[in-house]
Design a protein that fits this description.
Elements (H helix, E strand, L loop, with lengths): L9 H13 L13 E2 L9 E3 L1 H9 L3 H12 L5 E7 L3 E6 L2 H13 L13 E5 L11 H19 L3 E8 L4 H17 L18 H11 L8 H27 L5 E4 L9 H11 L3 E4 L17 E4 L10 E2 L9 H14 L4 E7 L6 H12 L4 E7 L2 E5 L2 E2 L12 H8 L1 H9 L7 E4 L11 H19 L10 H8 L10 H11 L1 H11 L3 H23 L11 H25 L9
Parallel strand pairs: 5-6, 5-11, 6-7, 11-12, 13-15
Antiparallel strand pairs: 1-2, 2-4, 3-4, 8-9, 9-10, 13-14
Helix pairs in contact: 1-3, 2-3, 4-16, 5-17, 6-7, 6-8, 9-10, 10-11, 12-13, 14-18, 14-19, 15-19, 16-18, 16-19, 17-18, 18-19
This protein binds one RNA strand of 77 nucleotides through helix 2, helix 10, helix 14, helix 17 and helix 18.
Length: 590
RNA sequence: GCGCUGCUAGCUCAGCUGGAUAGAGCACCAGACUUCGAAUCUGGGGGUCGGGGGUUCGAAUCCCUCGCAGCGCGCCA
């Protein structure tokens, strides 16, 4: 999408006009704090601006006085019908009524592109999410990060960023060695050996049985004769590959697809990028040999005060400097992660977003410090933490124990309640708040279940079109064709307060997209959709009591057409928002 | 002890980065189905925004402080 096609939506247009009107009156004051927003109370008009209050001090004027002056200047704006000054200096704008109809025409024209923004200016953004260890199938805890990251990526694309979706495969640490040993046991089992109980410290899950079997099929007993290092390497590689295939399948079931799967091991094997990164940081003085104070908690028995290789993260706001080398000479996870983020920067990403589980919160400062150090302050890393998910069924906790290998997998949940329910429910909450996921509730068909409520709104709107054929027998059945037809509707027929309110709500969508994208908060889209659906259901029901407010009016094709145009606008945006969240927009739900 | 994240109606949660009288859903009470999907809608009661200070025209939002909860605080990943 080119900049020339950048649709200026109503709020950005008015913001520019307000700033233009205020500039000559406000002296050197900073206009960036001026906002144009929908007022809390609809009786205040269509839009409100804080310009006078924000600028008064720098302009050396009283807020009300400045407000009056700006208001006067705004009265000549072509879109504006009425300007009021209220309260401490709010300027309330009422737009000419035809503005809303024209915005609806824009919606019909743009279709699925309505709300698309050029805010991101095609800037490259790397969104890293999931990155679950390849040591087993995904469980419900991974799910939230997957859905969140995916929706955030969708949102950023829609807001005009050049997004790469990335998965970091932790295939180099001690955990994959454990995986290899666990899988080797299953391999022996597959060859007919009695292995007894899985020893403490190895992964007991049944999911490794298939790995053992495949190894047995391919190698027969020959692996047992190889040196241990080679045994483990072969088993490890196979196990990781099979686990990753499993994970990709799980992600697919959620509709989550990554562009890049980045192997941690690739940073070490071949040319040692971790070592190179450390050397580089040592040159710039960010890495040094030194000692650390003993840890503040946990068991300090095995703490050994020794000189080690440290990253000076305290220079960037971290609490303590962080080790890069283990006592066995291997790199710490952190060291690899620095090299990994440097690789992102090398690949042109100055904007990075990592989605982590809340238990990694303590890791943020050091990673941001590292990103600053490695990029010379040019790159920025935002870390979004997704909080714990508590799995419930009808209010009762679903038991799960990862240690026994008997945990609820992502796949089981998706198979039970469906992709849309999982996704919407996980997104209908701020990422940093704990989430109760109730398997019984998410498939409930009621207003209490937001997924259903929004999807039902979409289905109900489609149902209106199905019924409209009685009045308009030649009504096309594709959205695009209907939109083309409705563009010529007489929008001034949309004069009922409920209809106008819906039009205003629709016009808010582009602004919402930009705000949600800027804040990296896809949940705002979910809440907006719920509100839009709610207004639509309300208007629909009003027609139940007051037949003249129905969308389909017998023997009045003009009014019917205008109202169907509104419904088309609603369908367009419900579908657009649901698509961003990765949730299906069904045409019927009977 | 330190850090991070939370704390908003009885319950589950929003609150658009500092705006006007703090909003939804559930639950509760009272209503609306011969006709566009009642899987819905309309109205009502319900608040010390965890407590206390501060910043300013203005604070749920920013700062300080205290309390509560979860997570983290080794060369694990």
């Amino acid at each position: 999408m080119t900049a020339a096609k950048a649709p200026q939506h109503l709020f950005t247009t008015m913001l520019a006009r307000v700033r233009a009107a205020a500039a000559p009156l406000a002296g050197k004051a900073d206009l960036s704090r001026v906002v144009v927003e929908p007022p809390r109370d609809a009786s205040h008009g269509d839009m409100a601006t804080n310009a006078a209050m924000v600028l008064a001090k720098d302009a050396g004027k009283k807020p009300r006085e400045l407000a009056d002056a700006i208001a006067e200047a705004l009265r000549s704006e072509p879109l504006v019908a009425k300007v009021d000054v209220a309260g401490p200096g709010f300027i309330n704008l009422t737009l000419k009524s035809h503005v809303w109809g024209e915005e609806l025409r824009v919606i019909l024209d743009s279709g699925a592109d309505y709300g698309r923004s050029t805010m991101g200016a095609n800037e490259k953004v790397n969104v890293e999410y999931v990155s679950a260890n390849p040591t087993g199938p995904m469980h419900i805890g991974h799910c939230r990060g997957a859905v969140f990251g995916d929706a955030l990526a969708n949102l950023l694309v829609f807001a005009g960023y050049d997004v790469t979706r990335e998965y970091y495969i932790n295939d180099a640490g001690a955990q994959v060695d454990v995986l290899a040993r666990s899988a080797f046991l299953r391999y022996r089992e597959a060859l007919g050996e009695a292995i007894g109980d899985i020893p403490e410290g190895l992964y007991p899950g049944d999911y490794l049985i298939a790995v053992g079997k495949e190894l047995a099929d391919e190698y027969g007993p020959s692996l047992k004769d190889k040196p241990e290092a080679e045994q483990l390497r072969i088993v490890r590689d196979r196990a990781v590959d099979m686990m990753m295939a499993e994970i990709r399948n799980d992600l697919m079931s959620l509709g989550v697809v990554h562009d890049v799967f980045f192997s941690e091991r690739s940073l070490i094997e071949g040319k040692d990028q971790v070592g190179a990164t450390i050397a580089e940081l040592r040159k710039s003085g960010e890495v040094y040999e030194g000692r650390l104070p003993p840890p503040k908690s946990g068991n300090v028995e095995d703490w050994e005060d020794r000189e080690q290789t440290l990253f000076r993260s305290t220079g960037f706001g971290d609490d303590v400097d962080r080790p890069l080398l283990k006592s066995d000479g291997g790199y710490t996870y952190f060291a690899s992660d620095i090299a990994y983020h440097r690789s992102k920067i090398d690949r042109g990403f100055l904007k990075m977003i990592d989605v982590w589980g809340a238990d990694h919160g303590g890791y943020i400062k050091r990673m941001q410090a590292a990103v600053k150090a490695v990029s010379g302050g040019k790159a920025a890393l935002d870390v979004k933490l997704v909080q714990l998910v508590r799995l419930l069924r009808a209010g009762e906790p679903v038991k799960m124990s990862k240690r026994s290998g008997d945990f609820v997998t992502l796949r089981e949940v998706v198979d039970e309640v469906g992709r849309s329910a999982v996704r919407f429910d996980m997104l209908y909450r701020k990422n940093d708040a704990v989430l109760d996921f109730d398997l019984a509730k998410v498939i409930e068909a009621s207003r209490d279940n937001p997924v259903f409520y929004v999807q039902y709104g979409h289905a109900r709107a489609q149902s209106v079109f199905r019924n409209a054929r009685t009045e308009m027998p030649d009504l096309p059945d594709t959205g695009a064709a209907r939109a083309a037809l409705f563009k010529s509707a007489a929008f001034d027929r949309l004069s009922d307060e409920g209809e106008l309110s819906l039009l205003r709500k629709l016009a808010l969508y582009p602004r919402l997209i930009e705000a949600a994208a800027a804040a990296h908060e896809p949940h705002r889209v979910a809440f907006y959709l719920y509100e839009l659906a709610s207004e639509f259901h309300g208007q629909w029901s009003r027609g139940k009591d007051l037949p003249h407010l129905r969308f389909i009016i017998q023997n009045d094709p003009e009014t019917t057409k205008a109202r169907l145009a509104l419904v088309q606008g609603i369908v367009t945006i419900l579908a657009s928002g649901l698509a961003l969240l990765g949730v299906e927009a069904p045409d019927e739900m009977r």
